Amino acid sequence: MPLAVGLFNDSGDDAQVVSLAVSQAHRRMLQRAGAHVRHAYYRSDWQELGTGTLDEAVAAALASAELRRVFADVDVIVVAGDTFASRGHRHLLAILGAAQHLDLPTYLVNATIGPLTEGREILQGLADCTVRDLATSRVLKALGIGHRRVPDAVFGAPFAATARRDFSDHLVVTDCHPSRRIEFTADLAVVRGAWPGMVADYPLDAPGSTHDWASAVADLGTASAILTGGRDGAALALRAGVPFVALGLAGEANDFIETLDGYPAAAADPTRSLDARLASAIDARTWFVEAAARCQTRGPADAFSRLRPSMALTGRDDTWSGAIDGAVDVVRGLTPAGGSVLHAGAGQGQLVEALARIGLRSWGTDVARRLDRPDRNRYSKATPMALPFADHVFSTVVVSADWLEHLEAADLDAAVAELARVGRDTLVVEVSGRPVRAERAFAERLSDEWWRRRLGTLGLTPHEASDTLVTHGAGPTGGTLLVMSAHAQLCPSCRRVHAPVDHVEPVHAGVLMAAAEARVLSLRR
Predict the structure, then answer these.
(1) Which is higher by pLDDT, 406 or 89?
(2) I need a labelling partner for 443 at 20 to 30 A (CA). Which of 167, 324, 450, 517 fits?
(3) SS3 of 306, please?
(4) CB–CB of 167/138 below 8 Å?
(5) Which residues partner with 340 through β-bridges?
(6) 312 touches 105 (CB < 8 A)
(7) How confident is the model at residue 417 (pLDDT cuts 50, 70, 90)?
């Protein structure tokens, strides 16, 4: 079954050759990695989230009904990061932060990042971060943020082999924006005067180029040499196997050249004139042909090599082994021998596994179902407001509060009612186990006193064993466990207390089913 991906900052809405190519490359690489893009958003989407502070942006992302539906419907969130250094990106940090708050694995790919003033913690929480340039790598190294440098995603795009334009004997000038043209006027005049053939402009964002973007590499491949003002033109020239040099002595094109092992030193020498550097590149034509072949063979396939969820959540609940032991002790004291337990917001399922080892029938649910687990039938993909189980099937329900803290008041009440619906005796809420990404918006929910009062207003009462079993730091993620009694169940429809009913065991916790269907099955038993 393919991994469901939510893709953000997709460049497919940008009328530029490389943007369109990268959009296709990411889909191609995700497909090869066994993933399916279930939801895609473009560069122009969600920018309204970034109008306030980062904390406010994360809170807004968590409060968005549309984003919550996306988070509940996918297994991982992928953000294309090639605009982080050049455009506003707070909204993208907010989406990553909101997804991390919900324990969704997050990936930042093909990134270019300038000096950071915010979001360091979010970047440190990434399951994987791939960057395409040395400057970004230096920034992240200085901040202690883990990352990998991989080839630009453009090398994975499905370019066509047939050219639509013939630049035979031409010197092609590309990726040179009109606003910067004045920088290169003098040098270009010298080169144009000395070039024996024609000189052609090949703007990557020209009308028509976006319709014929797939032929860009083949088009440039017919040229004799290329002058490029930016990284995109350099990448296309390299893939075409044509000698190229960078216009100017600073900028992204030169940063890209710095990553190329064996690029002719004379063609990159800043002390030499543009025409001399160009002549040196042409003399080394064989190197460019061989470099293009290497790019084709190697490509950027490694960008999604860590996409599987079992690799994704390192640094989360699986590192809290002591806290898991504490939670196991609490649940064991509350649950009859051989009883059933649900961990809502189970993450990778460490607590579920630990409870199974002591003889309890344990299940887990999360917004991102861990599809590659050998025991995956014990895990369901679900949101807090819609659990795929029959009424009152679990002796004990454990929920990490960070699975609930971001919800609006009405949704929070509905989620607690849903947890009580599937539970029979005890509800264990872990309070403030992980840092809350939107602390300012939901600060009052960080204390066990607030949760005890809130749960009390919904009909639950403190468990008689709470004083002896609950300890700080005992939760699966290091939080405080708050134990409430659910001997009298909350009706999810009328929100009133009902008398206990005879219970049934879960029909099949790993199978997603509508609540109504689950209730019918329980009655038949």
Answers:
(1) 89
(2) 324
(3) coil
(4) no
(5) 361
(6) yes
(7) confident
The two structure tokens encoding residue 293: 């072949």
* Mean pLDDT value of segment 229-245: 92
Please give the pLDDT value at position 45: 92
Q: Does residue 207 register a pLDDT over 50?
A: yes
**H or E element in which residue 426 lies:** strand 423-431
pLDDT at 306 over 50: yes
Fold of the domain built from segment(s) 3-157 = Rossmann fold (3.40.50)
**What whole-number distance in Å separates Cα of residue 359 and Cα of residue 498?**
30
From CA 87, how far away is CA 156, in angstroms rounded?
24
Give CA–CA dist 134/140, Å, rounded: 10
Q: Write down the residue that tokens 């035979």 correspond to.
A: 168
pLDDT at 252 over 60: yes
Domain boundaries, given as residue ranges, for the chain? 3-157, 170-298, 317-524
Q: Is the pLDDT of residue 438 over 50?
A: no
CATH classification code of 317-524: 3.40.50.150
Structure tokens at 482: 């708050």
CA–CA separation, 353 vs 373, rounded Å?
11
| Tokens (6 digits) for 186 | 């003098």
Q: What is the dihedral of CA 454, 460, 462, 464, to 10 degrees?
A: -170
Residue 424 has φ and ψ, to the nearest 5°, of: -125, -40
Tens-digit pLDDT profile for residues 92-112: 999 999 998 887 889 999 999
- Is the pTM higher than 0.85? no
* 83: its two tokens: 């605009």
Name the burial class of residue 87, with classes exposed (0-12), middle (13-18) and buried (19+) by CB atoms within 10 angstroms of its CB: exposed
What Cα–Cα distance (Å) separates residue 522 from each residue in 117, 335, 392, 489, 503? 54, 21, 10, 16, 9
Structure-derived torsion over alpha carbons of residues 41, 46, 47, 52, reported in degrees to the nearest 10: -150
